Automatic annotation (TrEMBL):
Protein name (record): Aldehyde dehydrogenase family protein
InterPro entries per record: Ald_DH/histidinol_DH, Ald_DH_C, Ald_DH_CS_GLU, Ald_DH_N, Aldehyde_DH_dom
Keyword terms, alphabetized: Oxidoreductase
PANTHER family, per the entry: ALDEHYDE DEHYDROGENASE, ALDEHYDE DEHYDROGENASE-RELATED
Native species: Gordonia pseudamarae
Length: 486
């Protein structure tokens, strides 16, 4: 086997703790989002590879002398070893993600390569502290022993936008609980999963605890409905989430769904819009990862009293952003993850123009970049909240500015969405911000910033999903309870 850094082409799949020859000769080839050049390839998993991965995960789960017999402390030890091995490969993982999906390397190094070890150590700590059984005194006399045991073999499906962090949202709590995993990465981001597999092997995680089978939507569907799977953990689009929910509904199979978003960034009338103070946070809350982030506040709600100032601020901000090769450390906006994704974003820009909204900057491709799937940071002002660009998830560097009059109207517009995932409030009065935040229908919000914290539950309402990841709540999602009446 070659080293993590050099292995851009593999012929094997990581199943049952070993590199195995896949059952079919099909391959997934990945091109750089910045240069469009081929950067590597991996075997594409077939249904029989999923069968083998599920069998390996089941064997590990059931092994009383291996993972299945580990105490919470032993699981935590293994997770901390994996975090250490992950840290050793953080640079290679960040570069692989960045090359594939266009995530600026500065973002990949700060978030994508950092969240997995952070979550592994956090959940290892919870595994050590959390009692996995308790005896409760009964109201009718006697008492009850309540046990929390791992839910079993998890089928986990992740998208391409934060492939490593979103996988860790699942396996970190899941391993703490004692589950085993079959992961299906997205075809756009498979090279980072090879490096992750190497970290798993180097950490001495027992064979079969985490298996990785890359493939597309059909392979995902096969995994979701596989008879050997006990729970599905999915992050991706709302459309795919609905079909997965239908399959899990039929099977009565537990499922966590982290889906799309169209969140509001509410600029209150008392906001301090000095970009020297808030620019970085505003950027992370509205345009992070080239706009390819589910929780971003892409509907900017601006008070009529300060509307022109808000439009001017965002327009200037977007013009100032450094657009370029994702691997350049000074890049703030990289390319879209694929040609298809750029087409999608451009089709929404066309719809924005047709809607009568005013394009204040962007709207095209950057002239100086003739290779790569780039789109200029784009701002639309005068947007009606009922228009397509305000209601549908664009997943690119495109923001819509919507006017409101008074807090009540801001809340009404923020809540007038199919989605409810993230959002942010911008204010110089903390209490005012929290009061408005309480009224917004969403899974999470930030005041003058937005970054999910590992200790707090993260997830959506309405079409943004079901269930919660992160925090102690994220661990509960991988446990089943049993009551033994004593
Ligand atoms: P996608 O739904 O097309 O694909 C996501 C993953 O699911 C991929 O691995 C894909 O192969 C697989 N898949 C697709 N259809 C499937 C099906 N019917 N059955 C099983 N698997 C299937 O999404 P994408 O374009 O890769 O990612 C972008 C979407 O993900 C956006 O909508 C974004 O908002 C969402 N997302 C949500 C969160 C969150 O935490 N809520 C985080 C990141 C991304």
């Amino acid at each position: 086997m070659t080293t993590a850094e050099s292995r851009t082409d593999t012929d094997e799949l990581f199943i049952g703790g070993a590199w195995r020859t896949p059952s079919s000769g099909a391959r997934i080839t990945v091109n750089s989002a910045s240069t469009e050049e081929r950067i590597g390839s991996v075997p594409e998993g077939a249904q029989s590879d999923i069968d083998a991965a599920v069998a390996a995960a089941r064997a590990a789960f059931d092994d009383p002398n291996g993972w299945g017999g580990f105490t919470p402390d032993q699981r935590a030890d293994a997770m901390e070893r994996l975090a250490d091995e992950y840290d050793k490969r953080a640079g290679a993982i960040a570069a692989a993600v960045s090359s594939q999906n266009g995530m600026p390397i500065a973002v990949a190094e700060k978030l994508e390569a950092v969240f997995p070890p952070l979550l592994l150590r956090y959940y290892a700590g919870l595994a050590r502290q959390r009692p996995f059984e308790e005896t409760r005194p009964g109201l009718l006399g006697g008492s009850t022993l309540v046990t929390s045991t791992p839910i079993g073999v998890v089928g986990a499906i992740v998208p391409w936008n934060f492939p490593q962090a979103l996988a860790a949202f699942k396996y970190a709590p899941g391993l703490a609980a004692g589950c085993t995993f079959v992961f299906k990465p997205s075809p756009e981001t498979v090279l980072d999963s090879v490096i992750f597999a190497e970290a798993i092997a180097a950490a001495g995680i027992p064979d079969g605890v985490i298996n990785i089978v890359p493939g597309g939507r059909d392979l995902g569907s096969y995994l979701v409905s596989h008879p050997g799977i006990d729970k599905v953990a999915f992050t991706g689009s709302t459309g795919a989430g609905r079909s997965i929910a239908e399959a899990c509904g039929r099977l009565l199979r537990p499922v966590t769904l982290e889906l799309g978003g169209k969140s509001a960034a509410v600029i209150l009338d008392d906001a301090d819009l000095d970009l020297a103070k808030i620019g970085e946070q505003l950027f992370s809350s509205t345009l992070l990862n080239n706009g390819q982030t589910c929780f971003l506040g892409t509907r900017i709600l601006a008070p009529k009293s300060r509307y022109d100032e808000v439009v001017e601020t965002f327009t200037g901000f977007a013009q100032y952003l450094q657009v370029g090769d994702a691997l350049d450390p000074t890049t703030q906006i990289g390319p879209m993850a694929s040609a298809r994704q750029r087409e999608r974003v451009e089709s929404y820009i066309a719809k924005g123009r047709d809607s009568g909204a005013m394009l204040t900057t962007g709207g095209g491709r950057p002239e100086q970049l003739d290779k790569g799937w780039f789109v200029q940071p784009t701002i639309f002002a005068g947007v009606d909240n009922s228009s397509v660009i305000a209601q549908e998830e664009i997943f690119g560097p495109v923001l819509s500015i919507i006017a409101y009059d008074g807090d009540d109207e801001a809340v009404r517009i923020a809540n007038d969405s199919e989605y409810g995932l993230g959002g942010s409030i911008w204010t110089s009065d903390h209490d005012h911000g929290v009061a408005v935040a309480r009224r917004i229908e969403t899974g999470s919000l930030g005041i003058n910033a937005y970054l999910p914290d590992p200790t707090a539950p993260f997830g959506g309402i309405k079409s943004s999903g079901l269930g919660r990841e992160l925090g102690p709540e994220g661990l509960e999602a991988y446990l089943v309870k049993k009551s033994i009446y004593l």
